[in-house]
Amino acid sequence: DSGVTQTPKHLITATGQRVTLRCSPRSGDLSVYWYQQSLDQGLQFLIQYYNGEERAKGNILERFSAQQFPDLHSELNLSSLELGDSALYFCASSVEGWGGSNGYTFGSGTRLTVV
Amino acid sequence: DQQVKQNSPSLSVQEGRISILNCDYTNSMFDYFLWYKKYPAEGPTFLISISSIKDKNEDGRFTVFLNKSAKHLSLHIVPSQPGDSAVYFCAASAEGTSYGKLTFGQGTILTVHP
C-alpha cells in the first residue's frame, strides 16, 4: 500500500457520460498529480495541484477538469466521454510542490472503460 | 512528439544475469531523470534517479547511467531476480528536482526467468 488511495478501481461507462475519479494523497502530502496511461502509451501528465491551487497543466482536454479540496483529496472529472478516453488514470502525491530526488508516490490507478 | 523513448517493448533475462534497460530522449532541456517499476494492478514505484550533472548513480543492485551527449540513459540490474519482472518506465523532467510534470517513456516489460 503506497498510501495514495484511488477510487474506484474500475469504472465502466457509456460514451457521452460523465465520471469522477477520486484520489486521497499520502498523509502529509500537499501536492497531487494526475496521469493518464492509454494502451501502449507511457504515462501522460494531465494536471498538478498544490495545497488547493493548480500548479501545472499538461495536455489535459477541455472536457476534463480537476480540483483539490481543503482536506487535500483531489477529484478528476471527465465529461462527454469518448471511446478514446478509456485508460488507466493514476494519481500521485508528494510533500512539496515538486517531485524531488525520490520521485513521487503513485496510487494503484482507476481503470476507466468507455463503451 | 515522443520526447522520451524506450525502444525495446520487452526484455527477457536469465536469473543472476545483468538486465540492461535503455531510454533515449530528445529534449535537451531535460535535466533530471527517474526510473519507475510497475507491477500489474499496482501504480508505478520509484526506483532510482539521476541528475544531469552526474553520469552514474548506484543503489544496491540498480545503477543508472546517463550519457548526455548521446541523450541516452540506461538502467542496469545486477544480478537480476525473478521478482524484478515488471514494466520499467523512464521519466524525465526539465526542472531538476523541482519538477511537477514528468515525461514518461512507453515502458519496457522485463521478464527474469528462474
Overview of this protein structure:
The complex is a heterodimer of chains A (115) and B (114). Chain A has no helices and eleven strands. Chain A is mostly beta strands. In chain A, strands 2, 4, 5, 6, 9, 10 and 11 form a seven-stranded mixed β-sheet that branches. Chain A has a four-stranded antiparallel β-sheet with strand order 1-3-8-7, with no helix packed on it. Chain A is globular. In chain A, a hairpin with a 5-residue loop joins strand 4 (31-37) and strand 5 (43-50). By secondary structure, chain B is an all-beta fold. Helix content of chain B is 0%, strand content 53%. Chain B contains no helices and eleven strands. In chain B, the strands form two sheets. In chain B, strands 2, 4, 5, 9, 10 and 11 form a six-stranded mixed β-sheet that branches. In chain B, strand 7 and strand 8 (72-77) form a beta hairpin. The radius of gyration of chain B is 13 Å and the shape is globular. Classes of the chains: A mainly beta (115), B mainly beta (114). At the A-B interface, strand 4, strand 5 and strand 10 of A face strand 5, strand 9 and strand 10 of B.
List the helices and strands and how they pair.
The complex is a heterodimer of chains A (115) and B (114).
Chain A: E1 5-7, E2 10-13, E3 19-24, E4 31-37, E5 43-50, E6 53-57, E7 64-68, E8 74-78, E9 87-94, E10 105-106, E11 110-114
Parallel strand pairs in A: 2-11
Antiparallel strand pairs in A: 1-3, 3-8, 4-5, 4-9, 5-6, 7-8, 9-10, 9-11
Chain B: E1 4-5, E2 10-14, E3 19-25, E4 32-38, E5 45-51, E6 56-59, E7 62-67, E8 72-77, E9 86-93, E10 103-104, E11 108-113
Parallel strand pairs in B: 2-11
Antiparallel strand pairs in B: 1-3, 3-8, 4-5, 4-9, 6-7, 7-8, 9-10, 9-11
